[in-house]
Amino acid sequence: MTRHDDPGRGAIVLAGGHSTRFGGPDKALAELDGVALVRHVVDRLAEVVDEVVVPCREPQVDGIRQVLAGADVETRVVVDDVRDRGPVGGFLTGLRETDSPVVAVTGCDMPRVDPGFVRSLFADAAGETGVVPEFDGRWQPLCAVYRTTVASAVSLRALAAGQQCIRDVVARLDPLVVDEEAVRARTRPENFENVNSQANLGAVEGLVAAE
Asked: 126, exposed or middle or buried, with CB in 10 Å at 0-12, 13-18, 19+?
């Protein structure tokens, strides 16, 4: 079922990190209000996309597939085949696996991502290589929208140059940047929150379901 007027929108949820700062089990599967973090993110993106690809490490596959079973959107959990190359490797894997010409990209640790804001980024994406919001004085490449073919080619070049940071890819893309004033008019600061620690997890208990 298409959830918008422009079919062909997908999402990539990066879940392959080693959760070193989290100080516990796999962050993607950590429960917030009884639901895995990655499921919170997928459920929110399901409002605005037709498919979600979740690149992760091989040991994570079964657990993530289990918590995403029954999601209200087509989901594919795939093994990151660009190993040990940081977030850009997972990004490239997701770009290769998606069937969508335009994709939103988030982390699995962003349970308060705003579907309405993501929808607005898709609306800005016509004719652009990508649309990246600016918040707190920085580009936010993990709450952004990208043209799949262009981003894939640029990611390959970034990896060939030894660059493993998503911001390096974005700089090469020359995307449309939504300035901070416009971003703050469209969404709440919580949209960009990452759950990077057990303390972060405890701080958002009870807040996600209330939104």
From this structure: exposed
Largest CA distance in the chain: 44
Q: What is the Cα–Cα distance from 61 to 206, expressed in whole angstroms?
A: 27
Residues with Cβ < 8 Å from 64, sequence gap 6 or more? 15, 28, 29, 36, 38, 54, 56, 77
Domains of the chain: 13-203 (3.90.550.10)
**Are 112 and 32 in contact, with CB atoms under 8 Å apart?**
no
Q: Which two tokens stand for residue 143?
A: 């709450």
Q: Which helix (H) or strand (E) covers residue 176, if one does? A: strand 176-178
Q: Return phi, psi of residue 167, to 5°.
A: -60, -30
pLDDT digits (tens, 9 = 90+) for 138-159: 999 999 999 999 999 999 998 8
Look at residues 137, 135, 141 and name the one whose alpha carbon lies nearest to residue 175. Answer: 141
Q: How does 153-192 read in b/e, with b if 16+ C-beta sit within 10 Å?
A: ebbeebbeeebbebbbbbbbbebbbbeeeebeebbeeebb
- Higher model confidence: residue 18 or residue 204? 204
DSSP 26: -
